[in-house]
Amino acid sequence: MPIQALSPTTYEQLIPVLKALAEPNRLRIFNHLMQGDSCNCELGDALELAPNLLSHHLRVLSKAGLVQARRDSIDKRWIYYAVAIAQVDTIRAMLHDLFDTTRCDPRPQLCGPEGQLAAAICATEATAIPE
To answer: How far apart are the first and last CA of the chain?
Structure first.
């Protein structure tokens, strides 16, 4: 039974996530937020990133659905960032499907020297006279 390939929708959902995490600073930010919520000043200090650069990376991570922001209930100037847990769980499941090695279905080579040899053997066996 052939194993199904990932759906085009899954590809479309994973591409922006993988692009966002491919940048080292964004990967560092995401990893830091996996340890708990953080304000931009804590993130900037911990990761040694300038505020404007940090803001840019957080915007990309938010757009990819990896990070969410909330304003402080007392002072709206403060913003706290956190991992978007529900979305990350969905992404994790898609990545599990992508990297599931049980999907690797060995099949005979149909081209190249191995394919030509297999075709010749099949042709010889098909024309052999049974005893």
So the answer is: 34
